[in-house]
Design goal:
By secondary structure, this protein is mainly α.
């Protein structure tokens, strides 16, 4: 990965872990609405209650593993798989104009291209998180963490705003 590689891997791990924690917390905060939001998103009536339990748990687990298994590429790979699965469901929901329970209660936020781009940014972070962060320098990792965090936060915010703006136009 070069001289910046460990810093980039460390920053990606921390930023992705924080975003997954945020997403899981948002789903837990909207716990009562999550099963119905998941049904609207395309999860079957039978599976929605179980997915409502497993989904935030999976996000929390991957977030913890990104930090706990610091030098292992496995958490980054698991995050890539998780984001690919999320994106497949997001694409299906986008085609149907279904609301997105991404980052908590779906409300009137329709799934759309901005969410797919957001997931692409997060998947890129997950790929970077497969790198070995050993040897990361505090200052370099912190600077890259801030930069990656700004990009990821922008992607999440723009996807949320895009869904709300589209819902108001319809």
């Amino acid at each position: 990965m070069g001289p910046v590689g460990p810093d980039l891997a460390a920053a990606a791990r921390v930023v992705l872990a924080l975003i997954l924690l945020w997403s899981a917390a948002a789903k837990i905060r909207s716990w009562n609405a999550l099963p119905s939001d998941l049904r609207a998103f395309g999860i079957s009536q039978r599976l929605a209650p179980s997915v409502a339990i497993v989904l935030p748990g999976a996000e929390l687990a991957v977030a913890v593993l990104l930090v706990a298994w610091w030098s292992s590429p496995v958490p980054g790979l698991v995050a890539v798989v998780l984001l690919v699965v999320f994106t497949v469901f997001l694409l299906r929901a986008t085609a149907r104009g279904a609301p997105c329970p991404c980052f908590g209660a779906a409300g009137d936020q329709a799934a759309g291209a901005a969410g797919v781009v957001r997931n692409g940014v997060l998947a890129a972070l997950a790929v970077l998180a497969t790198g070995d962060p050993h040897g990361a320098r505090g200052g370099g990792a912190a600077a890259l963490g801030v930069a990656l965090g700004v990009v990821a936060l922008a992607a999440v915010t723009i996807s949320a705003l895009g869904g709300h703006a589209r819902a108001r136009r319809d």
